[in-house]
Write a structure and sequence with these properties.
Length: about 450
């Protein structure tokens, strides 16, 4: 590491020693935050990669750049029975992380003040590595990813992200401006924070940097100011640059973490109205190219957030939407573990008892419109809370509670129930509520 990189690393260390991140109160628990737990549950990316349902008991999970330990706590809550290991370059942050996990009763956790490049010294291999909000601070992100790959198990998965260069451009300009003004030479303290606020308030309201990067929250929230306008070492990339970094580290893209928010087709009012040659050209683009085109049209995501792993370790599988009837008849349905809660169960029972629609998107919103299921499907979901069910068992359950076709008043046939169950389960699987194994 050259002198300039060493000096930058030391400045970043000082910043997070002085102001550990995130500043989440020790007693706050992520329980009940289904979306947060869902994306930190190893079951989610493992299913995306292999279309198999994983048991997290005994898995070893690394939180690389754990900070004050809130994401480590999320990982512990989301992955029952897993061992949590956290590393961070800030000793003060590591102390807070240890205290946080102990406070919430997680004894199977350990934390170390280490850089990512020092990971091999732990002598551990990991099933999952959470590297959240870290890569954009590294002077050599390829080396950082390579160090994580070196301690990743063969079927292991890394979650990593960069700031979007397109979405984040004005904050990067702010950081450059305040660096030139000498406000980022040392670890920012009250004097630097006050100076930034004075400068931003003094700017005319029409100045683009103020109009696009400043609001009332920055007037009172030191953490937000430090994580944006005064963030040392912050770098952004676009999709092609991120994929090039993955290739340089010999890692393979699996999926965007929030994949449902990266659908290029959904950016168009009517995709079918495009000129045929344009529609065909877009459809034939690779995943990387489609993601890049999405961001060029709609750079709305602050983070380019993805899962990756060892090359060639993904399991080839047929998407559920393309299953044959034989595959469906041999399949088993699982409720995603993050919905197996007392609250979810109570709400299901209430909706069934009162013959009202159950708004499942209340727990995980993946579309702009609410997603509601009727009492029949709610009854099937209730069965899945206790244990997975074969599709055949769900079809038989359907026949018991809906013995008659409501249109014809004739007995519901097994084929009718089978077709209805296929359609309902396929929709919920596509949205990530249900996991299917054939």
């Amino acid at each position: 590491m050259n002198t300039q990189a060493t000096e930058l690393l030391e400045k970043i260390r000082q910043q997070f020693d002085t102001a550990p991140y995130p500043r989440v109160p020790l007693e706050r628990s992520p329980k009940g935050d289904t979306h947060l737990l869902y994306i930190h549950d190893l079951v989610t990316p493992y299913y995306v990669n292999h279309q198999r349902v994983l048991n997290t008991e005994g898995k070893v999970i690394l939180d690389a750049g754990c900070g004050s330990g809130y994401k480590s706590l999320v990982l512990a809550e989301a992955n029952p029975g897993a061992k949590i290991v956290g590393i961070d370059l800030s000793e003060e942050s590591v102390k807070l992380a240890r205290e946080r996990l102990k406070y919430h009763g997680f004894d199977n956790a350990q934390f170390h003040a280490l850089t990512i490049e020092e990971l091999p010294s732990l002598g551990l291999e990991f099933d999952y590595i959470n590297c959240d909000e870290v890569l954009y601070l590294l002077t050599d992100p390829v080396a950082g990813l390579a160090a994580m790959k070196a301690v990743l198990k063969p079927e292991g998965i890394i979650r990593a992200n960069f700031h979007s260069r397109l979405q984040r451009a004005l904050f990067h300009q702010a950081q450059e401006f305040f660096t030139i003004m000498g406000l980022m030479d040392n670890s920012p303290n009250e004097a630097e924070l006050t100076a930034v606020r004075d400068i931003m308030k003094a700017l005319k309201s029409g100045v683009l940097l103020k109009a696009r990067t400043w609001n009332a929250d920055f007037e009172v929230d030191d953490e937000r100011l430090l994580a944006n306008h005064l963030l040392r070492g912050d770098k952004g990339v676009n999709i092609p640059e991120f994929f090039a970094i993955l290739r340089a580290a010999n890692l393979e893209f699996i999926s965007m973490v929030n994949w449902w928010q990266w659908d290029l087709v959904e950016l168009f009012e009517d995709f079918s109205a495009l000129p045929i040659e344009i529609g065909l050209a877009l459809a034939e683009k690779t995943v990387e190219e489609q993601l890049h085109l999405f961001e060029l049209l709609h750079p709305c995501h602050r983070l380019l957030d993805l899962w990756c792993g060892h090359p060639g370790q993904s399991t080839p599988y047929t998407p559920v939407s393309n299953w044959t009837d034989d595959q469906w008849r041999q399949a088993t349905a699982y409720l995603h573990p993050q919905f197996k809660t007392a609250t979810f169960k109570a709400d299901l029972i209430e909706s069934i008892a009162e013959s009202k629609l159950f708004e499942i998107s209340h727990y995980l919103q993946k579309t702009n419109e609410p997603i509601k299921v009727d009492g029949l499907l709610a009854s099937c979901l209730l069965m899945l809370i206790d244990q997975p069910q074969s599709v055949s068992a769900l079809v038989q359950h359907w026949l018991k509670i809906r013995p008659l076709n409501l249109v014809t008043s004739q007995p519901t046939t097994e084929m009718e129930a089978f077709e209805l169950m296929k359609d309902r389960l396929a929709d919920l699987e596509r949205l990530g509520f249900i996991l299917m194994e054939a």
